[in-house]
Structure to design on (225 residues):
């Protein structure tokens, strides 16, 4: 069964550093998403991406964040200058019709 | 703004007990509704979804949910839980025609063998 994959599974970085979280969505899916889950809190929507552009983003997704689909398979989330409060689990998801998403296993980001 | 409330944060049941987890949302327009499950150490998996039609939807593993539009609710049910149902359950809402999904805070279910 096809799966969404994410790398790395755990990323540790220093405050102020740039990080890139990578996702490989399911191959025939057209809609891509990033969420984050701070420890003990709820899953928060960050951004959705369709047709090579952002279709919707939340208040969390400020200028420090960007997304890209650099090739036909990868979907990346970049955080330009990480802050302590960016420490969270980041989930990528994809869907074929914008309804009902398949989630990846997540990347745990720790900012020191 | 849309929001989703899951009032039960922690639920503990014995095996074979019946389960009902509450989910209420606030949004006046048409919505798509979802329940996701996250087993310990695993990623979110879609349990079931409602887009339109029959308000009683059946999902995987014997779960079902009923959309009651007048109550803005989409409660998850299972007649007889098993130990393997121990997990965290998330309700999510998507306003039709948008790409933003709002999740509830989750309900942590523990089933005692």
């Amino acid at each position: 069964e096809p799966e969404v994959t994410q790398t790395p599974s755990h990323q540790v970085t220093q405050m102020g550093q740039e990080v890139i979280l990578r996702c490989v969505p399911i191959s025939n899916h057209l809609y891509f998403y990033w969420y984050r889950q701070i420890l003990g809190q709820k899953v928060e929507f960050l951004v959705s991406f369709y047709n090579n552009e952002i279709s919707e983003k939340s208040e969390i997704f400020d200028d420090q964040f960007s997304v890209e689909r650099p090739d036909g398979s990868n979907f990346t989330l970049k955080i330009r200058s990480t802050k302590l409060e960016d420490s969270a689990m980041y989930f990528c998801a994809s869907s074929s019709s914008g309804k009902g998403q398949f989630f990846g296993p997540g990347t745990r980001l720790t900012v020191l | 703004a849309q929001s989703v409330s899951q009032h039960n944060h922690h639920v503990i049941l014995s095996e074979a007990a019946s389960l009902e987890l509450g989910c209420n949302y606030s949004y006046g327009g048409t919505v798509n509704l979802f329940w996701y499950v996250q087993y310990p150490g695993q990623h979110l998996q879609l349990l079931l979804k409602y887009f339109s039609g029959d308000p009683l939807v059946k999902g995987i593993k014997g779960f079902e949910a009923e959309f009651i539009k007048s109550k803005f609710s989409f409660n998850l049910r299972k007649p007889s839980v098993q130990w393997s149902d121990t997990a965290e359950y998330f309700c999510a809402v998507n306003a039709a025609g948008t790409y933003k999904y709002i999740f509830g805070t989750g309900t942590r279910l523990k089933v005692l063998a």
In short: Chain B has a mean pLDDT of 93.
